[in-house]
Amino acid sequence: MISHRDRNAQRISALDERAEALHLKRGMGIADARAMHPSIDVVEADPQADRRLLEGLADWCDRYTPLVAIDGVDGLFLDVTGCTHLFGGERAMLDDILARFFHQGFDVRAGLAATPGAAWAAARFAGDHIVQGGEEEALLSPLPLAALRIEPDIRASLESVGLRTAGAVMAAPRAPLARRFGATLLLRLDQALGRLDEAVSPRLPVAPLSVERHLAEPVMLTDDIERLVSLLATTLKADLERRGEGARRLALLLFRVDGAVSRIAVGTSRPLREPLLIQKLFHERLAALEQDIDAGYGFDLVRLCVLSAAAFDMQQADLTGETDDCDADIALFADRICARLGEGAVLRPVTVESHLPERAVATVPFSEVPERSSPPRKPVRNPPMTIYPPERPIRLFRSPEPIEVPATEMPEGPPMNFRWRRALYRVARAEGPERIAPEWWRGQGGEDAPTRDYFRIEDSDGRRYWLYRQGLYGAAQASPRWFMHGVFA
Fold it and tell me: Whole-angstrom Cα distance, residue 2 to residue 351?
């Protein structure tokens, strides 16, 4: 038996058939149960472990349909619409599910119907029953009120007025039921009978494209898995070409014989559809996860999914059949490194719309960099005058470093000398200032935040620096401070 704490008392939350044969029931106190049978074994409930187990079973059920939802703490919903013919029909599919669960050591109950409500009732109260379309009312009529998936207080209120079965509720007038017991009762009833649609929300997003292969003999070796990836990618290429797309993120699902599922995902920086390149990415990923993937008794189902796709731009080849695209080689190299070491292994700087230099550039994973799209330029009769942007240092510090400035040529001018990192530098030449106002809309002090005056400084040895003064002399704020922000070549 499994116990849980309820209102400062230990009660039975689950029990097996042997415990039921001893006339023990759910909700009974553990003290009363031990008084009746002192030799019973009681285990404390672990809701988190139960949830992980249920999620693992939901992953395994992906072999039948990608639309799998978790129902409460002990149930699963599988939307198998359009999938049953792949397993020989509804009865063959249901028998296969029950047989596989039995061999894994689970005692499950299943039901199949045209509505989720009827399937739920069939699984929990009819036992391995297939409800044909239009037979939902006949199934529900003799069942208790719990088969309607209503709250316990509503069930108690219905039983107090003599309505103890679902058939009695269906025979009663609807208007008085809605006034006295609320609209939820009729909603659940109409959903079970198919009068109202009830959607099953899958726990994982459904891949737009996927291909799979059932194996007569389970595979265990990494080389065999990579060959299967190549075969599946070849099949997937035709679907991607038909849609004019390339894969940006792919997932490899390995279904183990004993029910465990391994999910391996890779991302690409550019749309991809070539089977050889896809195989190379998964080769790197499998090599990185070789110690973490437990093949057990082998994998009997392998599935390759496209989680996200993008438009595929064709490249013009020369007479030798090759394309002069250096970016593609760099992208493949970065993708393989990321597949082995993680998405954060290769970063790329991107420009950010910000006034402050330290925020004007950010580093993002290589695969997340947006592709540059330059619209065709229209001819201009009188082209505007070219304005060159201000010169920026080759090395920009991550955060400005404070410096000491003893004196200035004028209150708004550059320093004559400064001390940085305990060394004194004498200024030979200076250019500036370049004034940069802070971004007050980011909440850094509002309009009263100090401005920055940047100067390009060259010392007596020819070294060049980029420093700035924060604040103005003679202003109401505190005295200005000087910072070193970067160095030139």
Answer: 58
Query: C-alpha angle with apex 283: 278 to 284, nearest 5 degrees?
Result: 105
- What pLDDT sits at residue 463? 93
Q: Are 412 and 433 in contact (CB under 8 A)?
A: yes
Protein fold of 208-313+327-374: Dna Ligase; domain 1 (3.30.1490)
β-sheet bridge partners, residue 427 = 459
Omega within 30 of 0 (cis) for the link into 433: yes
299-311 vs 209-219, strand pairing mode: antiparallel
Per-residue pLDDT tens digits for 77-111: 999 988 888 889 999 999 999 999 998 888 889 99
Residue ranges of the domains in the chain? Answer: 2-45, 68-193, 208-313+327-374, 395-487
Which positions ≥6 away from 180 have C-beta within 8 Å? 157
CA-to-CA distance for 479 and 213, rounded, in angstroms? Answer: 72
Return the H-helix or E-strand segment holding 309: strand 299-311
pLDDT digits (tens, 9 = 90+) for 404-453: 987 555 667 888 899 999 999 999 999 988 988 877 777 655 456 688 89
Residues of the chain with pLDDT under 70: 314-326, 369-388, 407-411, 443-449, 474-477
CATH 3.40.50 fits 2-45, yes or no: no
Q: How far apart are CA 284 and CA 337, in angstroms?
A: 8
Residue 70 to residue 255: CA distance in whole angstroms: 19
* CB neighbours of residue 427 within 10 Å: 20
Whether the Cβ atoms of residue 351 and residue 370 lie closer than 8 Å to each other: no
**pTM of the shown model:** 0.73
DSSP H/E element including 306: strand 299-311
Which of 489, 487, 486 lies closest to 398 in space, CA to CA? 486
> Would you state the pLDDT for residue 387?
63
Place of tokens 């891949």: 207
Q: Which of 122, 44, 30, 42 is nearest to 77 (CA)?
A: 122
Spatial distance between the Cα atoms of 383 and 370, rounded to a whole number of angstroms: 29
pLDDT at 328: 78
What's the confidence (pLDDT) of residue 31? 87
- The pLDDT, as a whole number, for residue 459 is 93
pLDDT of residue 39: 85
Residues 6+ apart with CB under 8 A from 196: 187, 190
